[in-house]
Amino acid sequence: MYKISDDELLQELKMRFQENKKALDELQVLNEELKTANKKLEESEALKSHFIANIANEIRNPLASILGFASSILSADEKDWRDIMPMISHIYSEVFYLDFQFKNIFIAAKLEAGQIAPEICKIDIRSILLNLIESFKYEAEMKNISIVINNGADRKNSIYFKSDSEKLKLILSNLLSNAIKYSYKDSKIDINYKIKGKKMTISVQDYGEGISRANQKIIFDRFKRADSGINSLNRGHGLGLSVNKALLEILDGKIEVKTEMNKGTIFTILLPEATAEITGISGDDNEVIFNTSEDGDIF
Amino acid sequence: MENGRYFLYPSTLLVCKRPAWITTILGSCVAVCLYDPVMKIGGMNHYMLPYWNGEGLASPKYGNIAINKLIKEMVKNGSKRLNLVAKIFGGANVSQVNHSIYYINKRNISVSVNLLKEYSIPIVNSSTGGNKGRRIQFCTETGKVLQKFIK
To answer: How much is the pLDDT for A156?
Structure first.
């Protein structure tokens, strides 16, 4: 043992106190984090248990109108086929809406169960976007919104990109559906896409009501909607954007939002091109073997 | 996904009733392999962050959720929780950042250690920490795990 001076002792003690304090501070930060995590968990679980109750109308209203139209068609005369056509298009749009919402609900359930893996194929981006616009045509027409694709979508040549087409379709459907929902009447929606090297960006811009600062924090949380009040005109269940975020994470992508109140919102997704699929795995190059039967000493 | 070989992506989990090899690649992520020596079935998860903070979906991207779901899934497939044994892998410090609050890897590891202790599932083997990524293969029939360090 060697002697130390009082000064050195003080110095050493000071240092140790500081270290202790630092550790304590860190612990407190972690503690806080845990507390908020816990609170959020409880909150979100409560929302989850009310989920079915909350979306009951989202399911029953379209079903009621489908039933109504279908029975009118059944009782209609053959001569009235001109009157029947609009009913059929109503039925189509309601069924389309239901199908779209169920896709979100089921994929959210799969994501939460951890059963989603990317399925990569070559996608024709141009045709996906055109199909998407076609499928939302009816909803856009109801509000007299024109949807415009910029960046050479009118050109005849297709642009291919390797990614998961089903997931990308759902992501874009959610963005477009939101854009239509929160647009003002007689406005337009711009879709821009760009492929640069191995990266693609697609943005969907509306000129609608925008998202308030408070709501910007929660839009990616599950079951949260920017306008969940009883007077809300828009339907929805608050899963779309949280599904989008989770799906993009699986594809290594990102989603960004820029918004201004009463001016509109731009959602931009950034997606890297998928590398080749991971398929066969060889088992010949292993260094360490673990086994349960022996008490873990097989290093 | 051929011949009972599966690649496990981050934020997912898989329990196999039939004999299968599950492979995954880990950096700072952690994978928990649960094995039931009675039923001879196994399952694995692959989570990236320790705790879910209410953001986005409650997916198995987060340790607390991934571990709970994996145990539930094993029980659903006929295992008894008392029979389960666990092995933990991953949690390497690949980014070499030296602020202790950012030790995501360490917190990832401690989540699994703490939660498994809470459920009294013994950790029979583990290979965690360090600063190299790992590729692991888990045989769900025997509970054997093969590991290779990667750069």
So the answer is: 55
Q: How many CB pairs under 8 A join A and B?
A: 130
In chain B, which residues have their Cβ closer than 8 Å to the Cβ of A249? 11, 61
Whether residue B29 lies in the annotated active site: yes
Q: How far apart are alpha carbons B16 and B21 in whole angstroms? A: 9
Domains and CATH numbers, chain A: 121-272 (3.30.565.10)
Q: Which of B66, B124, B149 has the CB atom closest to A296's CB atom? A: B124
The yes/no answer on whether domain B5-150 falls in CATH 3.30.470.10 is no
Whole-structure pTM over 0.90, yes or no? no
* Burial class (CB within 10 angstroms; exposed 0-12, middle 13-18, buried 19+) of A201: middle
The torsion region of residue A262 among left (phi > 0), alpha (psi -120 to 50) and beta comes to: left
Q: Do A222 and B58 touch (CB under 8 A)?
A: yes
Q: What is the pLDDT of residue A293?
A: 38
Quickly state the pLDDT bin for B3 (edges 50, 70, 90): low
Q: Do A222 and B145 touch (CB under 8 A)?
A: no
Strands (DSSP E) contained in A188-278 are 188-196, 199-206, 254-260, 264-272
How close does chain B come to A242, measured CA to CA in Å?
5
